Amino acid sequence: MQISKDLLKLIKKIRNKDKAILDADIIEYIEEIFPNKSTDILDLIRRGIKKYIYKPSNRIVWISPGTDCEHLIYPKIFCSCLDFFNRVVISQQRTFCKHIIAQIIAEELNLYEIIEADDKDFNKQLKYFQLV
Predict the structure, then answer these.
(1) DSSP-derived secondary structure for 77-126
(2) Whole-model pTM?
(3) Fewest Cβ atoms closer than 10 Å to its Cβ: which of 34, 52, 57, 98?
């Protein structure tokens, strides 16, 4: 799918910059390759992507803000949002949802919050997202 190639080009573009910042050049490129989702993607990054690191196992999950709830992300694999289920899993119209794209960009630019949590809280978080 084209979106995968475009996302790889974006990551390469970000990595080739001297500073990892969300500058006008990167914003323009995001708008070029994700024209219908660029505003949403940038909004998600600005609202805050969170990286949870569970100790002592070092399991990692990412959380992206949604319009009315948060979404759990396993990078490049899964998002708990309805769009991912409908357009990626069911209809296979897309490779990623906007939350996964925002997470990838935020990770590349180091624009995320790190939250350390205890392993015993991992299942609680999965239950919150109704994944266990």
Answers:
(1) TEE-SHHIIIIIIIS---S--HHHHHHHHHHHHT-EEEEEEEGGGHHHHH
(2) 0.81
(3) 57
